[in-house]
Amino acid sequence: MDFLILFLFYLVFMLVSVVMVCICSKTNSLKGLVQGGAQICSCIIPECIQRAVRKLLHYLFHTRNHAFIILHLVLQGTVYTEYTWEIFGYCQELEFSLYYLLLPYLLLIICLIFFTLTCLTNPGTITKENELLFLQVYEFDEVMFPKNARCSTCDLRKPARSKHCSVCNWCVHRFDHHCVWVNTCIGAWNTRYFLIYLLTLTASAAVMAIISTMFLVRLVTMSDLYQETYIDDLGHSQAVDTAFLIQYLFLTFPRIVFLLGFVMVLSFLLGGYLCFALYLAATNQTTNEWYKGDWAWCQLCPVVVRPPSAEPQIYQNIHSHGLWSNLQEIFLPVVPYYERKKK
């Protein structure tokens, strides 16, 4: 029963990880793949089930709710429970350094602190009171952010680099994206917390993967298992190879092997997204601007239909002023500094 539960737990984790990457990246190819899959499923699944699934997806991804926050905490708690019960005790018996074994817990504390700060910090909501202040922060490029644009929902002038979030129903200064895992937008005031949260979450998964791998490797080397032989199905004596070792460890420590497989995959997925987020921070771009910039480049493509008299407008990033200035803008946002000075 434990084996089955852990197997289902692993599949759910993998599915959630893929969904998270799809939500965060928002690439055209992924969206096309999802739409194609939806068309195929519509021919097989009954209409009543399709309506229920659409309502559920709308609730999860198009309304503010705490479902993914609860899921995030449950999954993280489950992983650390498995690490504590399975790996921590075995590694102590093998005399692993206690500092290495406690490192995931330290990362967990830091991760939860910045996760909470990301959830609770105002991302940079634009209101009547701060509208004029936000309008002076960034320069309008007249391509992606025209100067006299207004938000039809909030009835406010749109500062450069802002966007109205349809989920939260407000305009956000330096809007990056809406993250369902923290149930809020990522904007000018909480991007710094989000980056540190993402960094510590990736590091904790990577450290767990390293410790789990070291445990299994030391177990094999101490038992001299790689020097043994076994009898195959034909009755022949065979030397122990890598495939046999993996099968043996899987049958002996199934939960540890499943945990190792999950945290390894999660480390690569989170690491890839972290690199993308750091690239955007280093070049002073947001996910929204990067995504819209792809469409701006498509205006040069000959297959794109546009009026003959219209000249293509190419988006250029005018907000990047060097690596140090770009990072300083994220970790020392302008508006909070002015507000503290005014108070």
TrEMBL record:
GO terms for biological process: protein targeting to membrane. Keywords: Acyltransferase, Cell membrane, Endoplasmic reticulum, Golgi apparatus, Lipoprotein, Membrane, Palmitate, Transferase, Transmembrane, Transmembrane helix. Pfam families: DHHC. It is found in: Cell membrane; Endoplasmic reticulum membrane; Golgi apparatus membrane. Residues 149-292 form the Palmitoyltransferase DHHC domain. GO terms for cellular component: endoplasmic reticulum membrane; Golgi membrane; plasma membrane. Its EC number is 2.3.1.225. One of its GO terms (molecular function) is protein-cysteine S-palmitoyltransferase activity. It catalyses: L-cysteinyl-[protein] + hexadecanoyl-CoA = S-hexadecanoyl-L-cysteinyl-[protein] + CoA. The DHHC domain is required for palmitoyltransferase activity. Belongs to the DHHC palmitoyltransferase family. This is Palmitoyltransferase. The lineage of its organism: Eukaryota, Metazoa, Chordata, Craniata, Vertebrata.
